[in-house]
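Hello forum,

I keep getting stuck at the same step: I have a sequence, I want structure tokens, and every attempt I make locally crashes halfway through. Rather than fight my setup again tonight, could one of you with a working pipeline run this one for me? It's a single chain of 444 residues.
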Amino acid sequence: MIERIGNCRIIEEVGAGGMAVVYKAIQEPLGRVVGIKALKSSIAVETQFAERFEREARFMASLQQENIINVYDFIKYGGTMFIVMEYVEGIDLYDLLDKYKKIPVEAATIIALQVARALNHAHFRGIIHRDIKPANVMISKRGDVKLMDFGIARDETLSDLTETGTGLGTPSYMSPEQILGDKLDQRTDIWSLGVVFYQMLCGKKPFIEDAKRSVLQKIRLDRYVPVRKLNSKVPRTLERILGRCMEKQPADRYPSMQALIHDLEDFLASRVVVNYNAWMVKYLQETDVLSSDEASGILTAGAVREGAKIVREDRRALRAIGVVQATVLAIFLFAGIIIQLAAGEPSFASEKTAVATSPAEMGQMKVVAVPWARVIVDNREVALTPIAAPISLPAGKHFVELVNPYFKPKRLEIEIQPGQTYEIMEELALETGAGSQNSARAKK
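Reply #2:
Ran it on my machine without issues. Output:
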């Protein structure tokens, strides 16, 4: 294995394909972890494969968008080529599907939306990806979705490296016009994204070859099994969106990636009311890609503090809003305490809260707070969400506060029953007066 590339020290090999090998490395002057994609030494630098490799580096370097892997450098050394790029710690969609088959509707839609945003940016720059598939989609531990591998992408302003009448791509995800070798536009990526979306929702590809037909023939001539026949949890609205992506004729598909993005955002607006990264972090925790401690650390560190209503706004603006809200909240709380002391009124958690005298008088409380919260019970902080295990409490009345400095606090009065678990599920609101109703409920 190579030990150094430029100013990067190689740590380990993390993957390999037919044309390249990928290494994890440290860029020593900055102490930054990077990924290095190396053209295999068996491929001569004057071949068409090498030209594609260099073109991939140029494409990715020109695409500065949060859902596209960043390229830091391109190096020619020792008779081969290297792309130094962002290292994403997480899991690719191929491995995620291999392990779990289906992905929940909301998580699958978030992934599709983020890939669509990456492609929309590329299309605006005149670049068509032409190889959208699960192996080219990374999901980081922070909930980011990243598109990678522009190895066979085409720039409309440059000559194509594929001869007319030939198809290039991964067969199961190729559009009908790509199979025929026709001239392609951005709608071929819409088809391929539709296939990936279908696979996430249904746990299988829409077109699988059999003894009668190849996968390429099926893509051109057959209809796929409707999504809801394979997964009844998929809403009809989403089924229609997916169907439009996978129309055989390009003219019948979405006219642009932006139009698809608009429909996906509308669908998610009423179903995912928190930051998409926070939702993905929770999903990765549920699938054991992240441990509870890792997920808690990521959420608590503020990696996903934006509210869903301001996802498109600058993150610095959110911090400013949070500071202002925290200050205002502190003023009101301080004023409230002064008023209570003056009036002689009890505090939120009074002295009448329950005290257990034996294990038989204990119950439990389980808390889910989105994006995250400090859990304060009877004026005492007991946990920080996400919490894996229920919290044991004496039977009787308790006062619960869910506190996140960037959101409006929630205050609940609950009644714990002996031997029962009381579940609290809350979505913290960024704006005063917004947010979910009290969704806490008792459960045996």
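Residues 157-167, 303-315, 344-351, 432-438 have pLDDT under 50 and may be disordered. If your local run keeps crashing, start a new thread with the error log.
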